[in-house]
Amino acid sequence: MTRLIKSSLLAATLTLAASAAYAVDAPAPAAAAIDWNAVSIFAVFVLLTLGITYWAARRTRTAKDFYAAGGGITGFQNGLAIAGDYMSAASFLGISALVYTSGYYGLIYSIGFLVGWPIIMFLMAEPLRNLGRYTFADVASYRLQATPIRAMAATGTLVTVAFYLIAQMVGAGQLIELLFGLPYLLAVVLVGVLMIIYVTFGGMIATTWVQIIKAGLLLVGATAMAIGVLATFGFDFNALLAKAIEVHPQHGKIMLPGAAVANPISAISLGMALMFGTAGLPHILMRFFTVGSAKEARKSVFWATTFIGYFYILTFIIGFGAIVMVGPNAIYHVGGDIAKGLLGGGNMPAIHLAHAVGGDLMKGFIAAVAFATILAVVSGLTLSGASAVSHDLYASVFRHGRVDEAAEVRASRITTVVLGIVAIVLGVLFEKINVAFMVGLAFAVAASANFPVLLLSMLWKGLTTRGAFIGGFVGLICAVVLTVFSPGIWVAVLGLSKEGAWFPYTSPAIFSMPLAFLCCWFFSITDKSAAANRERAAFDAQYVRSQTGIGAEKAAAH
Amino acid sequence: MDEQAVKRIQSDPNYIKLVAERKSFGWTLAIITLVIYYGYIALVAFAPGVIATPVSGAITIGIIIGAAIIVASIVLTGIYVSRANSHYDELTKAIVNAAAMGGK
User: Fold this and answer.
1) Which one of A223, A480, A552, B46 has the fewest beta carbons within 10 angstroms of its own beta carbon?
2) A139 has pLDDT over 60
3) Is A460 in the B-facing interface, judged by CB distances under 8 Å?
């Protein structure tokens, strides 16, 4: 029975924010036997990445190496790493599962996740690179008061990272339990320990390369699956769609936008959270400091957009392939009965499809890649959380910059270990709790707290410390409170009465993000203090640097 | 950078040109992206039937629009990069060189 609960939780976890919109069947998987193909392929990945960590550890000497890989990552490499951060297990398994159950609806999500990237390119990438060193708080506090702004930015970072991390840890435990046949606790501990090793010893260099390798594997695996699907239909996409409409229980309805249309405000709000949340995710923003120049930062975004866009096209084909090749096939269903749900639960279509197109070996490969994906994403998240603690809170807020580099990096490593242990504990605590809302909440907080402050600090001369501080916190609190009082949490997670859930929409962003901008603006223009005038006056020098890169961080010479 | 250097760069015609061009180009592309995306969301929210209208065989308007938005995202970022790599970087180089000369 616990398996049944766990598999339904897995489905819920890996699915995205509005998973409440589609019901996931929760069949009990067959007794999980250890999948030796998957375990061996994953073991090779772990050995390879530990080797890289050893190599990276020898190159990690300074704070710049630890936080920003010495600034020596190229645009292409960074684009791949960003895509890797972005193509989480939630994207791969969750979106293909969404296409499998709801057809076209899944594509709406993919597009929302993608369109944040052009915005980052046009408005943010170059100034970010030119102004920042290690964290986005460096940029936000460039001309504002360090203590309040870094405290605010670090809070926004930690809240975003915490929600994202819990969702990934719980998903990891359940996925590994299902795919590899390992106990949940062991799986969570394994993820936590490996992540601590990568980040503490190898810092950003190891984290980046783990991410690059994983992104490459995922793109190769997903490409092979999509080709396998298309080949079955003689590379006729139309034939695939026609067959999917024929065999899917909902037939032609799968081409409708589905649950997204339930409420236009929810659709727009979710769209805002996905689009602008991307531009406020701390572990993604941090990647802009790993390249050597604004030019490389631009290339990073181009490559990231290309890989992510390509990947979402693949997940769409994979989802439709699963409708045809997994849906009607009894061997992938509980007890060999297609009336019962999929073996392993609602997020398994991609895994079963791997088996359908490539047999046990392909399935093992895709399962191992899914595990590697979670591992790489939690590493990036942890490094970003650790940097917020050591670089923003410890070095700037508590020690007021009076701390040497070695002590700061030491603090970061200690924080990584602590965060890793916290992540394991949270993963265990939340094992039986529906954490599906957490990724959505992470995006909403990023869009409502981090993004407005960051954007205005770079582009608007009038922003003052008071405006940024109040605006950022109002956005953060508003996003969290509205989410808690939405039916997705109040009723589905907390089990409280429907009357208490007074916020009816899927995502809070349509309210919380404009409110944050409004507060930033209002509390800035009414700020008549001498400090505020100095901050406005300092904008010109900041702007010159953000545009030309004069005075910006250079890549470390190795 | 001291205040004088900032003033000097701000009055550099290349800098004025760079900032004006990049600002208008960046915002134009950003607004195009926003219009495309929220136009799409509006279509999804208010006219879902249009999304499911077949164009050729089982391929619908929705699938073509969806694929077009993905391609447009890549193409728009590509356009920005190619313009920035050639034009903006040249201007930036000139500004940096002038600033280095002025500082001595």
Assistant:
1) B46
2) yes
3) no
